[in-house]
C-alpha cells in the first residue's frame, strides 16, 4: 500500500483541483482530505457520509463552585486572564494549559475534553473517502490530521486498497507535518510567483528533514515563464523531480463551479492529456513502484 500526499507551500495553488483530477485516473484507491482547517475536496467529490464521528480535542477548565474556596490561586496562575473575580472560567479566554487544574489546593477544577470537530468515512463517485471538519477557531488540527490518516490507512488495509491519495494542507506547520509523516511520496504543487518559489523551498526542506521522496508540479506555469525557470533551477538544486507543467486554464474554475473535476467536465483534451502524462510519471516513479511499505502512523 502506498500513500501519495499532495501539498503546497501556500494556499490557492490548485492543489485540490489536481488531487480531484488524479482521483479519476488512480486505480484501486481511497481519498483522504487532510486539509481539515479548510476542507474543500468534498466540493468536487460530493461524498455521501456513511460514518460520522466526534473529534475530541483540547480541554477547558471548569471550576466547581461547590468545592471552590475562592483562594485565588487559579486566578493568580492564569496567564491568559480567563478566570473572573467570582471564579468563573471564560471558555474563550481559556487556552487549556491546565495549570489551574494542577495547582488548585482543593482540586475544585475539572478539565473535560471538548468536541473540536467531526470526521467522516464516506463513499463518493471515485470510491471511499476519509475526511474531517474542524470547528471554527478550534485547535488540534494536527491531531485531527493524524487521526483521519490513521483511519484511511486502516480502511485501505482492511479492504485491500493499493493507494491512499491524500489532499494535504498548505504551508509547513503542524498540520503539514502530521499529513506527510510516514507517506510514501509527496507531490508539491507550485505556482510561478516569488512567494510560490520561496514556499516551495521551505516545503522541500521540510520533506528532506523527514526523508520523504518529493516531486514537484508547476501549475499555471505559463503565467510567468521567468519565475517558472527559477523554480525549475531551484528544484534541481533541492533534488526535486519536476514531473510536469500545467498551463493556466479557466476550465479548472468552470468545472469547480459545477462540482466536477476536469475529467468529468470533459473539455480541453490537450489539458486532460497533460494531466494524464503527469499522473503516469508519478505512478511510475521509484517511490510509487518500490515494494517497501509506508511507515506505520503513531497509534
UniProtKB/TrEMBL annotation:
<feature type="domain" description="4Fe-4S ferredoxin-type">
    <location>
        <begin position="85"/>
        <end position="114"/>
    </location>
</feature>
<dbReference type="InterPro" id="IPR027417">
    <property type="entry name" value="P-loop_NTPase"/>
</dbReference>
<feature type="domain" description="4Fe-4S ferredoxin-type">
    <location>
        <begin position="59"/>
        <end position="84"/>
    </location>
</feature>
<dbReference type="GO" id="GO:0051536">
    <property type="term" value="F:iron-sulfur cluster binding"/>
</dbReference>
<dbReference type="InterPro" id="IPR017896">
    <property type="entry name" value="4Fe4S_Fe-S-bd"/>
</dbReference>
<protein>
    <submittedName>
        <fullName>Related to iron-sulfur cluster binding protein</fullName>
    </submittedName>
</protein>
<keyword id="KW-0408">Iron</keyword>
<dbReference type="GO" id="GO:0046872">
    <property type="term" value="F:metal ion binding"/>
</dbReference>
<keyword id="KW-0411">Iron-sulfur</keyword>
<dbReference type="InterPro" id="IPR002586">
    <property type="entry name" value="CobQ/CobB/MinD/ParA_Nub-bd_dom"/>
</dbReference>
<dbReference type="Pfam" id="PF01656">
    <property type="entry name" value="CbiA"/>
</dbReference>
<keyword id="KW-0479">Metal-binding</keyword>
<dbReference type="Pfam" id="PF00037">
    <property type="entry name" value="Fer4"/>
</dbReference>
<dbReference type="InterPro" id="IPR017900">
    <property type="entry name" value="4Fe4S_Fe_S_CS"/>
</dbReference>
